[in-house]
Design goal:
This protein is α/β, with parallel strands linked by helices and about 240 residues long. It is built from seven helices and seven strands. It has one domain: Rossmann fold, CATH 3.40.50. The chain has a seven-stranded parallel β-sheet with strand order 3-2-1-4-5-6-7, sandwiched between helices. The protein starts with 8 loop residues before the first strand and ends in a 10-residue tail after the last strand. About 40% of the residues are buried. Bound molecules: nicotinamide-adenine-dinucleotide (NAD). Nicotinamide-adenine-dinucleotide binds next to helix 1, helix 3 and helix 5.
C-alpha cells in the first residue's frame, strides 16, 4: 500500500469529549474529514456529527451504509467505573462491558467494509488497566483487557484484507473521566504521580498526536500491537 492509498476520512467515536475530541482536532488540523459519533453532538462545527450509542447494533448497521471510505476509525467512546468488585451491580457490569467492549466490536463490525475501501486503520482505546491490576476496577479492567484481545484477533483476521488494527493504551490522562474520579475522591492525584515515572498526568494532545502518527503509513508494519502511552506506568515495579 502507498501512503496515498489511505483515504483521509476518519470516523471517531466519543468525539464529543476528552481523547476523542482531541483526536478529532488532530485529524481535522491535518486536513482530514472527520465524522464524529457520540451520544449527542459535540461543540465542534468542523466535525460531521452522527448521534449514536455505540451499543446500538441496529443504529450502527443503518449508519454504515452511508459512510464514505475510511482511512481511520478511532474507538474512543468509553465509560469508567470505580467500585469494589463485591459492590458492583449487574447493571454496572453490563454497561461497562457493553460500551467499552461491545461498542468497539460493533463499530469495527459495521465500519469494516468502508475501512477496507479506504485502506484504513482501526484504533481501539485500551488502558493501562487492561494489562495491570488495580483496586476497584474489575469491570473496567476486564473490558479493556478484552479490547486488547479484540484488536489482536481483528488484526490477524484483517491483515490480508489490508486493514491494520491497534490498541492504544493511555495512562492517566487529563480528561473529564479522570477529573471526575479525582473530584469524587475515588482516585488520589498523589497515587497517580507516585506510580507514574514521568510524575504527571498525560495530556490529550500528546495521546491524539501519537494516534494520528500510528494511523499513518509511517507505521505500516504495526498491527495487532497494544501501544502503551503511559509515562512509564506499566514499566514501573515500585522501585
Ligand atoms: P470522556 O468521558 O472525556 O469521553 C468519552 C466520550 O465517550 C464522551 O464524549 C461520551 O459522551 C462518549 N460516550 C460514552 N458512552 C458512549 C456510548 N454508549 N456511545 C457513544 N458515545 C459514548 O473520556 P476519555 O477520558 O476521553 O476516555 C476516552 C477513552 O479513553 C475511553 O475508552 C477510556 O476508557 C479511555 N482511557 C482514558 C484514560 C484517561 O486517563 N482519561 C486512560 C486510559 C484509557
Amino acid at each position: 500500500m502507498n501512503a496515498s492509498d489511505q483515504t483521509t476520512n476518519a470516523l471517531i467515536t466519543g468525539a464529543g469529549s476528552g481523547i476523542g475530541a482531541e483526536c478529532a482536532s488532530r485529524f481535522l488540523s491535518a486536513g482530514w474529514r472527520v465524522i464524529g459519533v457520540d451520544l449527542s453532538p459535540g461543540v465542534s462545527r468542523e466535525i460531521e456529527w452522527l448521534q449514536a450509542d455505540v451499543t446500538d447494533w441496529d443504529r450502527l448497521a443503518r449508519l454504515a451504509s452511508d459512510l464514505p471510505p475510511l482511512g481511520a476509525v478511532i474507538n474512543c467512546a468509553g465509560v469508567g467505573l470505580r467500585e469494589p468488585a463485591i459492590g458492583t451491580s449487574k447493571a454496572d457490569w453490563d454497561r461497562i462491558i457493553a460500551v467499552n467492549l461491545s461498542g468497539c466490536f460493533y463499530v469495527a463490525r459495521w465500519t469494516f467494509a468502508r475501512l477496507r475501501d479506504g485502506h484504513g486503520v482501526l484504533v481501539n482505546i485500551g488502558s493501562i488497566n487492561g494489562t495491570g491490576g488495580f483496586k476497584n476496577r474489575a469491570a473496567y479492567g476486564a473490558s479493556k483487557a478484552a479490547v486488547i484481545a479484540l484488536s489482536k484477533n481483528l488484526a490477524v483476521e484483517w491483515a490480508e484484507l489490508g486493514v491494520r488494527v491497534l490498541t492504544v493504551s493511555p495512562g492517566f490522562t487529563r480528561t473529564a473521566l479522570v477529573e471526575q474520579g479525582l473530584r469524587e475522591g475515588k482516585t488520589a492525584i498523589e497515587d497517580i504521580l507516585r506510580h507514574t515515572p514521568q510524575a504527571r498526568l498525560l495530556e490529550t494532545a500528546e495521546i491524539a498526536a501519537a494516534i494520528y502518527r500510528l494511523a499513518s503509513h509511517d507505521f505500516s508494519a504495526l498491527t495487532g500491537s497494544n501501544v502503551l502511552l503511559d509515562g512509564g506506568f506499566d514499566s514501573f515495579t515500585g522501585f
